[in-house]
């Protein structure tokens, strides 16, 4: 079974410990037949045998030794069981730790497509509940199966030695029990797969709701969200109940069969004792060990349920474990070169799941140039810049950086040469200083301040209670939209990249601040090619060239003056943005 092979593979480092635990389980469980055996000796020698009274007088030492033996073996079993559980826990916790780190690395190494397709809640479920289920199966399910089987086999062997016929009578019950258990397992399995999916949905809703709490509050949709959550919660709970109730359909049969062991033992065992074929002591050993046959049958339901949960969880974990990204970062660029910053799109077409979003894009950017990209929302601007750091790969054509196809460049090196300030600003729960120095944690404090100044962020940071040491909440809570954008800009500048990509980074700052930022960008003390997505003409006007996108195609390209003279899309936007503030446009596009 592949899942068990996978478990074995991940036990590496703890295999010896786990095997010792399994062996101790077998030894400990085999010892369960010792006390019934001693009991049998005591009954036959001192209670029910023909010489019992005599033996009680003459062999007191033996009686005490047998009694002490019983206590001793009980203590030994308890000690073994304690030690065995310790080993199982150690091995399973170590495996959990290793697999969790491995999965986290795997998730980190996935490309954007993976994150587009996988829900955060589902990934969280895999990293927590599913992993714990796998650990539980290693530490408890396998242990229980091994111990139940050993007790079962030891009891059967012992019974055979006493009386083969009575043992066969007892074993008659085993096949129907296994058939019932098998049917139950088949029926319940899809239920646990479904249950696992519902749990993931519940986690997704919880995660989205907490992450989006501001939107929920802004629209006063708390009740709607509570109802949505309640629905999913009821859904999960119902599925749980349904799976648990299935067991009730089978439970009576298994219980009857389990009771059957005792009934058969009482009837046939009693007859055999009356016939003198077995002694009272042997009969008492049968009675004492009969639980070894009936107990595994009783707990078969719990074991099967847990096994099904294990399969549902391990399958989900293996999806992450074996997922390989189409765009992989191998982190093997020994020396990272600094690029010049030349960019070319050579007949690039891009599709999201078959839907064309960019078509036949051609342009060149020379090192040090500033290019502005403008276009209606959804025209493909973000998609276009996403192709440069290879967040996605083009379906057709090539994206070249410094003359080399990005697919041939070392990903780490490529991304290390690009500073990006994305449209949705995400700051980490860390100090402002830590956020700005994210790409270069060893950066001295004065450099952090320098880049904050360039991004027009220094003044407001200084006024904060703890300045650069102020901790910003999750996703930058506690800062205005414009403040977050400026910290994100400082973070992108702080890596001093030869290629800087700004996706609508100044949309939320006032015009004066924007002017300051533009001045800083013009005067950077390192060589840098800049690609700026912007909607404001005040931002694009300064660029060396402006590219206008419409429905994934370039419809205009040129300088501010050239595009105004063209009287096309750019001219219309310019007119719209300047209407009402008294500016006029002359034939040369000058303000
Ligand atoms: N991850 C994705 N999966 C599928 N389709 C996507 C994805 N991201 C964007 N799209 C689609 O691709 C098209 C271009 O999106 P893109 O984000 O590049 O536009 P944009 O010009 O940057 O828009 P905006 O100015 O609103 O940010 C849109 O139709 C969008 O719905």
Automatic annotation (TrEMBL):
Ranges annotated as spanning the membrane: 18-38, 62-88, 140-161, 167-185, 250-274
Protein localization: Cell membrane
Domain ABC transporter, chain residue ranges per copy: 343-576
Keywords: ATP-binding, Cell membrane, Membrane, Nucleotide-binding, Transmembrane, Transmembrane helix, Transport
Membrane topology category: Multi-pass membrane protein
Single Gene Ontology MF annotation: ATP hydrolysis activity
GO cellular component, one term: plasma membrane
Entry-linked Pfam families: ABC_membrane, ABC_tran
Residue span(s) of domain ABC transmembrane type-1: 19-309
Name of this chain's protein: ATP-binding cassette, subfamily B
Species of provenance: Paenibacillus catalpae
Lineage: Bacteria, Bacillati, Bacillota, Bacilli, Bacillales
């Amino acid at each position: 079974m592949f899942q068990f092979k996978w478990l074995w593979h991940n036990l590496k480092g703890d295999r010896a410990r786990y095997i010792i635990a399994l062996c101790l389980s077998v030894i400990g469980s085999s010892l369960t037949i010792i006390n019934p055996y001693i009991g049998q000796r005591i009954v036959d020698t001192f209670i029910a045998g023909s010489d019992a009274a005599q033996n009680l007088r003459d062999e007191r030492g033996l009686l005490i030794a047998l009694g002490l033996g019983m206590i001793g073996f009980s203590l030994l079993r308890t000690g073994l069981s304690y030690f065995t559980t310790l080993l199982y826990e150690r091995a399973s916790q170590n495996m959990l730790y290793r697999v969790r780190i491995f999965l986290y690395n795997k998730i980190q190494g996935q490309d954007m497509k993976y994150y587009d397709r996988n829900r955060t809640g589902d990934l969280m479920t895999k990293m927590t509940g599913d992993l714990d289920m796998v650990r539980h199966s290693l530490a408890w399910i396998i242990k229980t199966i091994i111990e139940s089987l050993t007790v079962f086999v030891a009891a059967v062997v012992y019974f055979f030695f006493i009386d083969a016929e009575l043992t066969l009578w007892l074993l008659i019950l085993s096949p129907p029990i296994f058939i019932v258990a098998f049917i139950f397992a088949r029926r319940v399995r899809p239920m646990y797969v479904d249950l696992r999916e519902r749990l993931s949905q519940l986690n997704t809703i919880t995660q989205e709701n907490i992450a989006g709490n501001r939107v929920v509050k802004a629209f006063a949709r708390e009740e709607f969200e509570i109802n949505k959550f309640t629905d999913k919660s009821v859904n999960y709970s119902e599925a749980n109940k349904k799976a648990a109730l299935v067991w009730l359909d089978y439970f009576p049969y298994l219980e009857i069969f389990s009771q059957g062991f005792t009934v058969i033992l009482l009837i046939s065992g009693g007859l055999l004792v009356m016939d003198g074929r077995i002694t009272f002591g042997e009969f008492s050993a049968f009675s004492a060990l009969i639980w070894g046959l009936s107990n595994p049958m009783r707990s078969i339901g719990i074991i099967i349920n847990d096994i099904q949960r294990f399969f549902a969880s391990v399958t989900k974990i293996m999806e992450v474990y074996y997922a390989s990204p189409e765009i992989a970062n191998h982190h093997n660029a020994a020396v990272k070169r600094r690029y010049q910053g030349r960019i070319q799109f050579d007949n690039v077409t891009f599709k999201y799941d078959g839907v064309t979003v960019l078509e036949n894009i051609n342009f060149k950017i020379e090192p040090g140039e500033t290019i502005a990209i403008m276009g209606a929302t959804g025209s493909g601007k973000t998609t276009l810049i996403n192709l440069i750091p290879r967040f996605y790969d083009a379906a057709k054509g090539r994206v070249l950086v410094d003359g080399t196809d990005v697919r041939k460049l070392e990903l780490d090196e490529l991304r290390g040469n690009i500073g990006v300030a994305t449209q949705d600003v995400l700051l980490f729960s860390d100090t402002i200083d830590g956020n700005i120095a994210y790409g270069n944690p060893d950066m001295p404090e004065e450099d952090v301040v320098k880049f904050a100044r360039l991004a027009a962020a220094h003044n407001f940071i200084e006024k904060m209670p703890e300045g650069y040491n102020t901790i910003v909440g999750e996703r930058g809570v506690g800062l205005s939209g414009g403040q977050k954008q400026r910290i994100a800009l400082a973070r992108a500048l702080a890596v001093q990249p030869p290629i800087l990509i700004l996706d609508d980074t100044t949309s939320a700052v006032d015009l004066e601040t924007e002017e300051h930022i533009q001045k800083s960008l013009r005067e950077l003390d390192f060589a840098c090619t800049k690609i700026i997505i912007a909607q404001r003409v005040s931002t694009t006007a300064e660029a060396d060239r402006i590219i206008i996108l419409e429905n994934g195609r370039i419809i205009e390209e040129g300088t501010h003056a050239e595009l105004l003279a063209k009287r096309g899309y750019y001219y219309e936007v310019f007119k719209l943005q300047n209407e009402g503030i008294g500016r006029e446009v002359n034939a040369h596009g000058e303000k």
